[in-house]
Sequence to fold (99 residues):
Amino acid sequence: LLVGPSGAWFCMPGGQRISLERRRNLALILDLLARQRGPLPAASLLAAGWPGEKVIATAGAHRVRVAVATLRKLGLKDVIVTVAEGYALSHAVPVALVG
Fold:
């Protein structure tokens, strides 16, 4: 998996490049997942995807669930895994940050 600068795009092996330039929240979440590589709680993904916003906990959790579902639909279905601590990128998929 290649991830562009600040998560602006991603490309699966043998796949096409998917732009997230107009989806800033998704790009920021993917960037954090790619940089950390460990399990991240929804609160961390919320803070990354919507920096500085104050949100009710349930609304924030919903935002993160929708964002993760969207990233999965865009081609990361087998890459983003749900773990007890929250979400992570599968260690079965090598990740390279580009730029």
The longest strand covers residues 80-83.
